[in-house]
Amino acid sequence: MKKLFCALTLFLLLVSCSPSSSENSGISSSPSQSGASTEETPSSSQSPSDGEWASGTSDSDDPVFSPLENPSSDWIQQSGQAAISPWEYQKLLKKGMDVDWSKTKQGRTFYSSQAVLHFRQAGINHVRIRVRDQLDPQLLQSLDQQVSDCLENGIIPIIAYQADDFKNNPTEEELAKVVQWWGILAERYQDVSPLLAFDLLIEATDALNKDSEPLNRLYEAVVTEIRKTNPQRILMISPRLRFNPAYLHELKIPTNHNGFLMAQWHFYAAGPSRSNEKKQWTIGTQEEKQLILDQINAALQWQEATGIPTWVGAWMPGNYNDGNDYSIDEQCVFASFVTKALTDAEIPFAINSDTKFYNREKGEWIAQMEPVRLAIFS
After folding, report:
1. Distances (CA, A) of 226 to 81, 144, 322, 353
2. How far apart are CA 105 and CA 131, in angstroms?
3. Would you tell me how many other CB atoms lie within 10 Å of the CB of residue 306?
4. Residue 238 near residue 201, CB atoms below 8 Å
5. pLDDT less than 50: residues of the chain
């Protein structure tokens, strides 16, 4: 009996020390180095390491632009998230800001996740992340981080592309390059939260100012390409002449809009002017205020006629790039009127731009501009 008891004890010890099988028990286990399944859903508590989900990998030296595979943070998971209608998205945007985080080398160099937190604390609901350059692994990696930071801090990210070569020379060859740019980006972010939107062009200038035809050709081709991977992503198209709302009626709605389309327009994108009659602002006369209201009303009428919501992608409280001769008090008066007019019309907007209000090198708001910022975002 004693021998039998010892044998039984030894057997139980051996069983308890042997590795258990999660495949049979249904319990998830950590992958082993010798070849674990890559189909496991990563924990949402993990944070991505540099480059972990920023780009694909390849045995060759050529850069690989791939969608985000096996993401290690739940910001990128779209499964289970319902698509957002354009009208609901319009309500979510509220007040935002244009940012140069990915537009310039300096913007990428001094970008900090802390800036996103500061923006959210200041009441900024969305950012329009403007991109000027061709896509490469470094640019994509920085975009990944910015989109991630925004979504994790409750800010809606919108990516906008400058497409300078097409604006200067709207040929079929240049159009194809823009289509390719958006195709790469769309595939990369196809599984990201539906809060991420694509603004197809930063601004229609140069050769696109006088004719809507090449602009409409661009939108048709780009939307068709994006819809291959993002059938329900919010996309934004804009009219000619620096996105003047008076030309919204010339837009041809892309065939594959799929009901997830918005229109974006600008006014006072470079600020008001004391002398230019089209955007004049001196002391805020009734005529000057009516210039603003007329453009808002043009957008509202187009919204009603088409059923497509709009938003303002850029307006500037002062002429910062052209004399900068409005006092802080004058800027506050102008900013307060525009903010109230757009808010009353329930049209969201983005302020142009972050570098005028936020010192990215120091990571703090510019004290001198605080009254203007508070006039808009308070």
Report:
1. 19, 18, 37, 27
2. 11
3. 15
4. yes
5. 1-80
Tell me the CATH number for domain 81-377. 3.20.20.80
- Encoded tokens for 224: 């068709």
Q: Which tens digit of pLDDT belongs to each residue from 290-299? A: 999 999 999 9
Task: Give pLDDT tens digits for 80-136.
Answer: 489 999 999 999 999 999 999 999 999 999 999 999 999 999 999 999 999 999 999
> Is the bond into 102 cis (omega within 30 degrees of 0)?
no
180/263 Cα distance (integer angstroms) = 22
Q: Count CA atoms within 13 Å of residue 325 on its CB side.
A: 7
Under 8 Å between Cβ of 6 and 12? no
How far is residue 226's CA from residue 186's CA, in Å, rounded to a whole number? Answer: 6
Backbone φ and ψ for 116, nearest 5 degrees, come out as -65, -45
Q: What is the rounded CA–CA span in Å between residue 41 and residue 61? A: 30
Q: What are the structural domain ranges in the chain?
A: 81-377
Between strands 126-131 and 95-99, the pairing is: parallel
Partnered with residue 95 across adjacent β-strands are: 349
Rounded CA-CA distance 337/288 in Å is 11
